[in-house]
């Protein structure tokens, strides 16, 4: 029996891909020894044309790669499973849940560097994840949520980045809050799917009760397909 890939598998593939790119920002730039003569002019590597060109080449690879890269954890086809693990998170005023099998990790929020000539409205730019440039997408845009909506505020609420395993490598999506991973009874999920309430919501399988609120259970297959389309 083959073992499941580790959470860092797809991220490691992205790091390997970037080895063909001259990541001078990690050697002589702002994340290196800062000996690059262009730093005097640009102050930060993200303002340099070399950094922008490298990010553009990375996004080109998302469009060109055809390798079959499986999600971080394979789906378990087991009739005896009675619960399913979902990561619960918030965007604005709305709570959502997504299957943990497509999640690589939850990471602290990182600066997002916008790119010229954006290819889609959902593409926010790129973020530096362990020295690798990773595409950053807006779930608010992909899901058609109200971007003006607020949400709870307080010192204990920390925005996060979800690193999810898309078809051609990981992408990051910023979220306003992460509640954690919860095991949901399969009967609850089946009832939510059969309710028909998901028909009007984009990439949604159903609506679940969650801590006195309504939570959208996302269809990860449709969502990941939309992510791939946004990068091509």
From TrEMBL:
Keyword Transcription appears in the UniProt entry: no
InterPro entries, sorted: CheW (IPR039315), CheW-like_dom_sf (IPR036061), CheW-lke_dom (IPR002545)
Primary localisation category: cytoplasm
A GO-annotated cellular component: cytosol
Domain CheW-like: 83-229
Organism classification: Bacteria, Pseudomonadati, Pseudomonadota, Gammaproteobacteria, Pseudomonadales
Compartment(s) where it occurs, according to its Swiss-Prot or TrEMBL record: Cytoplasm
GO biological process: chemotaxis; signal transduction
The protein, known as: Chemotaxis protein CheW
Native species: Pseudomonas gessardii
Keywords of the record: Cytoplasm
Source superkingdom: Bacteria
One Pfam family here: CheW
């Amino acid at each position: 029996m083959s073992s499941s890939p580790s959470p860092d598998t797809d991220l490691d593939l992205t790091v390997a891909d970037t080895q063909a790119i001259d990541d001078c920002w990690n050697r002589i730039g702002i994340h290196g020894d800062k000996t690059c003569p262009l730093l005097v002019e640009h102050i930060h590597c993200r303002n340099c044309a070399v950094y922008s060109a490298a990010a553009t080449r990375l996004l080109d690879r998302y469009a060109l790669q055809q390798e079959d890269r499986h999600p971080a954890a394979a789906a378990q086809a087991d009739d005896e499973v009675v619960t399913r693990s979902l990561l619960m998170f918030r965007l604005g005023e709305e709570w959502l849940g997504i299957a943990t099998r497509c999640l690589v990790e939850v990471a602290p929020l990182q600066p997002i560097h916008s790119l010229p000539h954006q290819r889609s409205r959902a593409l926010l730019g790129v973020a530096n994840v362990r020295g690798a440039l990773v595409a950053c997408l807006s779930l608010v845009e992909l899901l058609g949520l109200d971007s003006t909506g607020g949400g709870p505020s307080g010192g204990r609420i920390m925005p996060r980045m979800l690193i999810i395993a898309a078809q051609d490598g990981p992408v990051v999506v910023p979220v306003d809050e992460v509640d954690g991973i919860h095991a949901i009874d399969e009967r609850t999920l089946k009832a939510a799917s059969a309710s028909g309430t998901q028909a009007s919501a984009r990439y949604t399988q159903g609506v679940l009760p969650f801590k006195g609120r309504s939570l959208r259970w996302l269809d990860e297959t449709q969502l990941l397909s939309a992510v791939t389309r946004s990068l091509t």
